Amino acid sequence: MEHTENTFERIYEVVRQIPKGTVATYGQIAALAGNKRWSRVVGFALHVNPDPEGIPCYRVVNRLGEVSAAFAFGGGNRQIELLEEDGIPCPGGRVDLSKYQWRKRAF
DNA sequence: GGGGTGACGCGTC
DNA sequence: CGACGCGCCACCC
User: Fold this and answer.
1) With a 7 Å cutoff on the CB, does A23 touch strand B?
2) What is the pLDDT of residues A78-98, one digit of tens each?
3) Which of A57, A83, A90, A95 is catalytic?
4) Domains of chain A
5) Is the CB of A6 under 7 A from strand C?
6) What is the pLDDT of residues A21-30, one digit of tens each?
7) Is A90 annotated in the active site?
8) DSSP structure string for chain A
9) What is the pLDDT of residue A24?
């Protein structure tokens, strides 16, 4: 029933679809949400993340696979811990997108 | 209606 | 290899 007309809601919708054990990039979220140039908007949307428990914003990293440097939940350090809990190693606060990047085509 | 901002992406130096 | 700047779009005042 909700017609996510707002861009933000669309972004949240995509982030919620990120399966456990995988991560997505801002650009990817933006592309799935509708526009590949919303990368900045995606960052802002997650910044105002209204439902951090339902929206795994910690599964979103930049195109380099690096975690946010200003994670609002206690620093990027916190994000790394959450990712590792999902089984995603983040050496140097960085994720191997080649292996853990979310891919619509499950395999 | 205009201006400033931001958890990005990409090219270039 | 690292650092810098520009562009892009949406949201808030």
Assistant:
1) no
2) 889 999 999 999 988 899 999
3) A57
4) 5-96 (1.10.10.10)
5) yes
6) 999 999 999 9
7) no
8) -----SHHHHHHHHHHT--TT-BEEHHHHHHHHT-GGGHHHHHHHHHT-S-TTTS-GGGEE-TT-BPPTT-TTTSHHHHHHHHHHTT---GGGB--HHHHB--SS--
9) 95
